[in-house]
Amino acid sequence: MNTFNRERIRTFRFVAADYDAANGQARLSYAFDDGPELVERLSFPGAPIPCDPAAFERALRLAHLIAGVSYYKAAVPPQLRVETSEPDERAAALLDAVYVDGLEEFAWRNGIDLRGAIHFPRSASSPADHAATLGFPRRSLVAIGGGKDSLVTVELLRSCGEDITLAWVGESPLIAAVAERTGLPMLNIGRTLAPELFEFNRQGALNGHIPVTAINSAILVMAALLYGFGAVIFSNEHSASSATLEADGRVVNHQWSKSIDFERGFADVVRKTVAADLDYFSLLRPFTELAVTREFAGLSRYHQHFSSCNRNFRILGAKPRERWCGLCPKCHFVFLALAPFLPKPALVAIFGRNLLDDPELAGHFDALIEWHAHKPFECVGDAQESRAAFATLTERAEWREDALVKRFRTQIQPQLAVPIPSLEALLAVHADHAVPVRYHGLIDALRRA
Questions:
Q1: Sequence-distant contacts of 333-336: CB under 8 A, at least 24 apart
Q2: Strand runs (DSSP E) across 7-100, as ranges?
Q3: 8 A C-beta contact, residue 217 and residue 266
Q4: In 3-state terms, what secondary structure has residue 196?
């Protein structure tokens, strides 16, 4: 293999995308300059045949262009070359955002500024007003990640008798076990990155956070067309749209591909260029993390099985400590968010210990409330949600003397410059969402909870 020298690379190429129905495998090919072809493979169980070949081809091309972000970031060359069909203006604008806003955390950490540097080639043809209507059945693919949010979505949809199948991309024993726990149909799509990428990383390629939800969204749209589903549903809530960091005129959102901006932009491209009646949306968008957590607190059959821990996400064991490291921001936020809604013994049983009674974790919880620190680069709620959870716990006898709750009550809360919103105020439903009308009854149900 040639030595990878990112400083000398000038062009990132989108070489080819194809689907072999004989083995259910899609190939997404890329290259830097005239270097080796980088081939990513997607495997669809049962080798399904597309319900509409033309629509599927459009979805495949969109996924090819979005998934390329995993490889582009290795060198961030100044030129992009699309050697398949160039996207129209609408799709190209979305791709510009995926490669700029979706890589903003990566760029900020690596001392790079991609603003103004990304401009996807555009097709000369005018964007279509809408794609064809394909007459999908009322069946939904629901993205599941093994954590609390997607389980709340699953149970809300189940409660109204929706026909749903749980779907995830890539190998994860934990997700598989949680999905099996629901008793619902499952679809696990294989994704194998080009092995050369890992060699490039060893040779000094740039690395960092990518908008993986954008990639998974595009792959699940492909799956919807292969298996005959009329909706792809995610579980991204209101605070996913909030910035993680604002500095030097840059807005960095770790969760950008989970934001309402991406959701609306991607859904519009799907409707206008892939299939007019294929819905893509997040069912939980009207709700805060705290509102979702309150709902999850009532789903006790999942409490000893779910995990949002990033460090130990691939570790599936019988004891809670094997699902929760207790050291990462996800562990800290989920513990804090659940505390107002679960009895203390039940919460400690999930995590294996009381994270709010460990003084050594003070700095980590300070980041969650943005106390002399910015919010962690993780999928966690807003600082006001964490502050409201702490404030609620200071009023409860079972929590108020725990080390970090007491510290918040005596040292931090008196110094806060702005009032802490009430827990009740943060459970309110937000109107800024893209949930189709037929699901609004579920929003009303959560509002009344």
A1: 333/289, 333/368, 333/378, 333/380, 333/381, 333/386, 334/147, 334/148, 334/293, 334/308, 336/365, 336/368, 336/386, 336/389, 336/390
A2: 11-20, 25-32, 38-43, 79-82
A3: yes
A4: helix
Query: Hey, what amino acid is at 371?
Result: W
Binned at pLDDT 50, 70 and 90, residue 311 comes out as: low
The type of residue at 63 is A
- DSSP assignments along 200-258, one per residue: HHHTT-------HHHHHHHHHHHHHHHHT-SEEEE---GGGGS-SEEETTEEE-TTGGG
Q: What is the largest CA-CA distance in the chain?
A: 67
**pLDDT of 310:** 76
Distance, CA of 255 to CA of 440 (rounded, Å)? 25
Q: pLDDT tens for residues 216-236? A: 999 999 999 999 999 999 999
Estimate the share of the chain in helix, then strand, then coil, as percent rounded to the nearest 5.
45, 15, 45
In degrees and rounded to multiples of 5, residue 127 shows phi and psi of -60, 140
Report the candidate in 448, 308, 294 with the shortest Cα–Cα distance to residue 378.
308
pLDDT digits 0-9 by tens, 129-184: 778 999 998 899 999 998 999 999 999 999 889 999 999 999 999 999 999 999 99
Average pLDDT over residues 374-395: 94
The answer to whether 324 and 312 have CB atoms below 8 angstroms apart is yes
CA distance 241 to 377: 13
- What pLDDT, on a 0 to 100 scale, did the predictor assign at position 448? 59
Question: Which pair of structure tokens corresponds to residue 63?
Answer: 């996924």
- Residue 91: strand, helix, or coil: helix
Helix axes 383-394, 289-297, angle to 10 degrees: 50
Q: Which residues pair with 247 in a beta bridge?
A: 250
Q: What's the CA gap between 217 and 232, in Å, rounded?
A: 8
